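hey m, so remember when u said the tokens were messed up on ur end? i reran from scratch. heres the input so u can diff it against urs
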Amino acid sequence: MASVDGRSAIHPDSAFGQKIAAQNHRNKAYDERDEVISALSKQFTAHLMRDESRMNWKDLVCVHLPTGNVAWRISAESRRKHFAHLHEVANHFQRTTHAERTDRLLTLK
């Protein structure tokens, strides 16, 4: 399969092509998730934090809901794209389970 520049293109059915498609799908899902979190961060008190103990995904966005704090890890690219309106504070991240975070979101009034 040839591309416009003469180099061979990645066939979408190849293992590598499928891997690229999966990465693109995952990136789109994270982007959509971060759009929703960004909207929440504009409705409630929110800020950014850093977790230097991690090698990747060191940035967190914390949203202070009336039902309790919720936080998500975000990429550096997402921080620039979706969360530039937030300031950074000292890390006070309290680990919660997915179920706890979901419960805090679902019990919002």
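this time it looks ok to me. The first helix runs from residue 15 to 43. if urs says something different then somethings off w ur setup not the seq
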